[in-house]
Specification:
single chain, about 475 residues, Aldehyde Dehydrogenase, Chain A, domain 1, Aldehyde Dehydrogenase, Chain A, domain 2, 2 domains, seven-stranded mixed beta sheet, six-stranded mixed beta sheet, 14 helices, binds 7-thionicotinamide-adenine-dinucleotide phosphate
Length: about 475
């Protein structure tokens, strides 16, 4: 870890926040026809900026711009030329990484250390990786014909990273895009739009339309869109699947999760405690693949929980711009209310609730790192996605029982296995119904690895060669 005691970034003038932001359509910023909205800093509740709201007519203009750019420029350009733009974007992201990290932290509430060391470098890595594919699509296994205009709708937990997961492969394959960031975190997508200008990306290849759910719906319903890529809740994902049924639109859905971190009695204990802590408290638990259920083998449960509590007591909760902060702010009042509601339900249903002593700031949206013991598979906290810093602990005796409990959820996005036995890792990886299974680690992301879920966690893969399938005619 890089310990840097420089002044807090906001006091160094790293980000040049504007009072208001427009939509990015056809290579230019412009006003929206909706009423507009504000975006706030969830750590202070202070308004950061006014943001334009795209109406259905604005979405229509963005789709028309994307179609023109697709027909006239982008789909005709050799892959080797498209690659140059993507490499240029990746380089500018690196050059402006501090600005991007600070803005992400201000708008989202995540610790600056994570934005700086995880989000932004992974975003650049994604553009570098897919830039490398742009002139090699004939080796992708999915042909090399783009689909057309992609409509992309993303959530608030990793605003810039989800944008990269969507835009980088789409552009590499020769598609153009209309992307809507979440209402509570639009700012880094708009800074990315500036980066597209800086990279001289042809007008209309990337369009960013800000707004709320209605703007997302206008994208989904637009007849000029060839493909919908959505990351968000299972409820909205199901509504989107219904809306595109019977049309020619292709769709990929990355939805919720309720991952189990399974710790066997021979696991490297300190490493497992670290992995469990990272699994649930990274990004305040606002992670679709968060290890929100700990399944620990009964014979080591007591000792493991003691160690886990001691480690949790060292987590620093507070100012996201402080480089020593481990757990930042909850992204919105609505999300905080949901975390409180589910945690209260856990207590009411009889689970034991524990949090280390920690002082939370008075303003802003905060929730302490929380552990529930004596959890049964019937409890809401064991079944529903909390999307916050709340860990539910269950125990098991045998691998069969661990598999049954881990798979006892409508979701199937990710899982973790902690054991010294290679054969047990391989056996568990085969039997756990999860798109990603980490062994003796957790929350590892790499642009070369496909990511995606089973069951109600959605379908389609992002990342790696498989991520190209979503944006090529020969894919899926
Ligand atoms: P949602 O409420 O589903 O929102 C996701 C996006 O969809 C936002 O941009 C949202 O706009 C928009 N939206 C809302 N209603 C819509 C509609 N009817 N039609 C089209 N778009 C609509 O989810 P969230 O609360 O932002 O994100 C949390 C969820 O995302 C969690 O369940 C989490 O697990 C999941 N998630 C999954 C993954 C992967 S990779 N599987 C990654 C991150 C998050 P507004 O925000 O402006 O309302």
């Amino acid at each position: 870890m890089d310990l840097d005691y420089a002044p807090a970034p906001e006091s160094t003038g790293i980000v040049d926040l504007r009072a208001s932001y427009g939509l990015f359509v056809d290579g230019e910023f412009r006003d929206g026809h909706g009423t507009g909205f504000t975006t706030i800093n969830p750590a202070t509740e202070e308004v950061l900026a006014e943001v334009a709201e795209a109406s259905a007519a604005d979405v229509d203009a963005a789709v028309a711009a994307a179609r023109r750019a697709y027909d006239r420029v982008w789909s005709r350009m050799p892959g080797s030329e498209r690659a140059k733009y993507l490499f240029r974007i990746a380089r500018i992201i690196q050059e402006r990484s501090r600005e991007l990290a600070v803005l992400e932290t201000l708008d989202n509430g995540k610790p600056i250390r994570e934005a700086r060391d995880v989000d932004v470098p992974t975003v650049a890595a994604h553009f570098f990786y897919y830039a490398g594919w742009a002139d090699k699509l004939k080796h992708s296994g999915y042909g090399e014909t783009p689909l057309g205009v992609a409509g992309q709708v993303i959530p608030w937990n990793f605003p810039l990273l989800m944008l990269a997961w969507k835009i980088a492969p789409a552009l590499a394959c020769g598609n153009t895009v209309v992307l809507k960031p979440a209402e509570t975190t639009p700012l880094t997508a708009l800074l990315f739009a500036e980066i597209c200008q800086q990279a001289d990306l042809p007008a209309g290849v990337v369009n960013i339309v800000t707004g709320a759910g209605a703007t997302g719906q206008a994208i989904v319903d637009h007849p000029g869109i060839d493909k919908i890529a959505f990351t968000g809740s299972t409820a909205v994902g199901k509504a989107i699947a219904r809306a595109v049924a019977g049309t020619e639109k292709r769709v990929t859905l990355e939805l919720g999760g309720k991952a189990a971190n399974v710790v066997f009695d021979d696991a490297p204990v300190d490493q497992a405690v670290e992995g469990v802590v990272n699994g649930i408290f990274f990004n305040q638990g606002h992670v679709c693949c968060a290890g929100s259920r700990l399944l620990v083998q009964e014979s080591i449960a007591e000792d493991f929980l003691d160690r886990l509590k001691r480690r949790m007591a060292t987590l620093r909760v507070g100012d996201p711009l402080d480089k020593n902060t481990d757990v930042g702010a909850i992204n919105s009042a609505a999300q905080l209310a949901r975390i409180r509601d589910l945690s209260d339900a856990g207590e009411a249903e009889g689970a034991g609730r524990w949090s280390p002593p920690c002082e939370l700031p008075e303003r802003g949206f905060w929730f302490p790192p929380t552990l529930f013991t004596e959890v049964s598979t019937a409890h809401r906290i064991a079944r529903e996605e909390i999307f916050g810093p709340v860990l539910s602990v269950l125990t098991f005796r045998t691998p069969d029982e661990a598999v049954a409990k881990a798979n006892n959820t409508p979701y199937g996005l990710s899982a973790g296995v902690w054991t010294e036995k290679g054969s047990l890792i391989l056996d568990m990886a085969n039997r756990l119904r999860a798109g990603v299974v980490w062994a003796n680690t957790f929350n590892k992301f790499d642009p070369t690895s496909p990511f995606g879920g089973f069951k109600e966690s959605g379908h389609g893969r992002e990342g790696g060669r498989h991520g190209l399938a979503a944006y090529l005619k020969g894919g899926e």
